[in-house]
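REQUEST ID: PR-0412
SUBMITTED BY: lab tech R.K.
PRIORITY: routine
TASK: structure prediction, single protein chain
INPUT:
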Amino acid sequence: MQHQVLPMSLRMAGMMLSAMSRPFPGLTAKLFYRLYCTPPALKLRAAHEQLRQQASMSSLQVSSYPFDYTPLKVTTYRWGTTGPKILLLHGWGGSPLHFKQLIASLVAQGYQVISYDAPAHGLSGGKRTNLVQWIHVLEQVIQREGELHAIVGHSFGGLSAALTLARRNVRVPRLLMLGTALSAPVFFDETLRLFRIHPVVMPELMLLIRQRLREDLAEMDMHRYIDHIKADKIWMAYDTTDTLAKATEIDDYLQSYPAIQSLRITGDGHFRIMRHEAVLEGILEVLAAKI
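STATUS: complete
OUTPUT:
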C-alpha cells in the first residue's frame, strides 16, 4: 500500500489504531480486521458503465462460507456467447469492468469472457468480505461454470485463484496472474508496519481470523504451495514499480517455481498493468499456446 495515495479517512484510522495498539491489542485487532474486510467505495467511469451495458448479466446464488450456508448473491457478467471460456477475477476494491481492454481483445479473438463482482463489491451482496470467502465463492463458480480455458486474476483476484487451485478440488488448464501479491500474512504485516501498529497486535489478529473464519492466516500464502497449484500452465505479469505486489518478492518466488512463465515490466505500477500492451499480448499468447 502506498502511503501517499491513502485517503485521509484511512490515515486517520491508522493513527488511531497506532495509538491504541500497545495498550489494547485485542480491540485494535478487531478494529483492524473490520477495516480490512470492508472494501473501498468504487466510482465507475462512463466507459465502464457502457461496458456493463454490453454484458449479459445475471445473478448466481452461492453459500457464504464452507461453514456458513447463508445465501449470497453474486452478480455475473458475460461477454460473447461462444468459444473457450475465460474467467476474469478483479482485485480488492476493483471491478470486472476494469478489464475493459482485455475483454475487448478476448472477445475479438473468439473467447467467451465470464466474470463477477466479488462479495461486497459492485452489485453483489454483502458489506464485508475476505480472502477465505473469495476462495469459497470462486470454488463454487468454477464448479458451476464447468470447463474453463483459463482464469486471469488481477492482484487479490490472482492470489485467491492460486490458493483456490492449490487448496480446493478444482483445476484449470491455464492460470494467469497480473500484479499479484503472494502472501496474505506478509500483506497484513506490512500494513501493520505502515500504520505503525505495535507487533503485539499480529498474534491477536491471527487468533481472531482463526475464530471467525476457521482458517489460519499463515496458510494464505502461495509460498506454501509450490508445485501444488492445479493448473497446467501458470503465467505471471508484474511491474518493478508496483508497491503492492513487490517485484523482488516475485523474483524470489519464481526462482523456486521455475515452471511459471513470467513477464516483467517497468513503469505501469499496480493498476495500469491490466491494460499494458505487452501484458495484453502476453495473455493472448499464453491462451493460444498448446499445453
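NOTES: The first helix runs from residue 8 to 21.
REVIEWED BY: pending
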